[in-house]
Amino acid sequence: MMKKMMISAMAAMMLMAPQTALAKTQKTVYLTFDDGPSRNTLKVLNILDKNHVKGTFFVTGQQPQCFPYIKMMAQKGHAIGLHTYSHNYAKVYASVNAFNKDLDQIQKVVVKETGHQSKLVRFPGGTNNTVSRHYGYKVMTKLTRSMNAQGYNYIDWNVETGDATGRLLSPTQLAKNACVPMKNVVILMHDTSAKDNTVKALPMIIQYYKDRGYTFKKVNANTRCRFKPAN
Ligand code: ZN
User: Fold this and answer.
1) Residues with a beta carbon under 5 angstroms from ion ligand 1
2) In terms of pLDDT, which residue wins out, 100 or 17?
3) Spacing, Cα 51 to ligand 1 middle (Å)
4) 207 C-alpha vs ligand 1 centroid, how far in Å?
5) How far is the CA of 166 from the centre of ligand 1 (A)?
6) What is this structure's pTM?
7) How many angstroms separate the alpha carbon of residue 53 from the centre of ligand 1?
8) pLDDT tens-digit series, residues 164-188
9) Which among 67, 102, 65, 66 is positioned nearest to 82, based on CA atoms?
10) Architecture in CATH for domain 27-217
11) Which range (62-76, 128-142, 168-182) has the least confidence?
């Protein structure tokens, strides 16, 4: 009886082992940082380095004095995406042409800093932002088509820390919001000078996903996480 139980237990373990390994490889987390570079970029880069994980930065042109950090992001092996130069909704969502012009402006900065074009885009406010409708008729639908036609991959998110809400959330609360045990997680965070609590939350977020066997990945041309266009 005892022997039989032991054998069944062993059989169960043998059956479970490969499944656990498989499950581990299947869980993916993408750490994404919008609105940088900023005076917090260096801190974010150091935390990612220390934890041996890579992230994706969707950059803007809002702090030209921080542009050298874009070069550093690339040197450290992180992915860089475009988040428009101005991040000004009235300007970028006025028309497809206006958006493309602004996108080219930040593309030029990225090329200057890294020597490479980026084919990744995150729309300010996301594809589902409802503010855009005040500026351009069906502009989000048109923009998604324009991005696809130009070979850009636009990416939204499915988890957010909440660091962009008006209310200042504690690092613990931000981490709690960002830790969701889904199979594929794309986390939205912000890399601006005001987001000190995001920097403090980041190690907790990384630890949570490490403890659960997630693979940390950078956004690439094939990464899909898209909202339906808001208009
Ligand atoms: Zn943004």
Assistant:
1) 34-35, 124
2) 100
3) 25
4) 25
5) 14
6) 0.89
7) 22
8) 987 899 999 999 999 999 999 999 9
9) 102
10) Alpha-Beta Barrel (3.20)
11) 128-142
